[in-house]
Amino acid sequence: MTLQEKPTSRNIPLPIQREVRQRCGFGCVICGLPLYEYEHMLDWANVHRHRAEEITLLCDKHHREKTSGLLPSEAVSEANANPYNLREGVSKPYNLHYTGSYCEVLIGSNVFITKDQGYGTVMIPVSIDETPLLAFILTDGHLLLNINLFDENNNPILMIKNNQLIYSVSPWDIQLVGRNLVIREASRKVLIDIVFEVPNKIVINRGRFLHNGVEILISPECALITNNKLLFKENNCSNCSGGIIIGHHFNESGAAVRVNNVPRYLGDRDEAIKWAKESIKEDFFT
Ligand SMILES: [Zn+2]
Asked: In which domain, by residue range, is 77 found?
């Protein structure tokens, strides 16, 4: 339990916010929506304190219902004891508003741009062993973002399927603040930091793409395959159906860079990061 009995303001201290997010499954306890507010279950005027166990998460709709008296406090307490996302094991799907006939992906200083060329245009900036970790599909004026992110043990952590965002509730912390989604595996250890620049752009400047023993480490300056010290910096890729394509793929055409024979689980990560730092003479991956 994290306790602060005499707060100087109504602002909830960050460690208490995190504890509440974890306990509530990173979403509204009633419906699971990943867009939420922190709600004191006891009347603030009476308690004047921030106790994690007395605070819950409610989406805008359910917060308004509670404030207007349409949602009883008992129903909120009941949901708080058994939050929607923890019951489901994943977050409630949320639809991202991507649209148009053009898209742009920025991954650690590398830019991938594609215009709809008809017949269901596809852009896959990163794919490992036939699994697209990141892809845009452009078809009939629709722009569909697809993302598959895994942890080191190949467990799915984040999935965006045709703009529909769902995440696992198992990581240490998940925050969707404005357009910025950050998933942390532990304190200070970022799995991914994504900015959804709707309607047509996505920016990833921090994080790790992991799959089948391959790691692509992202910093604002570059993307680095740590297994074999392959570094991608300031590349521009236009109207290319494939970007960084690692491992065996049935379709061998349309890749900016195709990397086969990556040593799996065997790369010296520390050595690769040291090498990358020396190579581009910049202080990153801090
Ligand atoms: Zn809700």
From this structure: 3-88
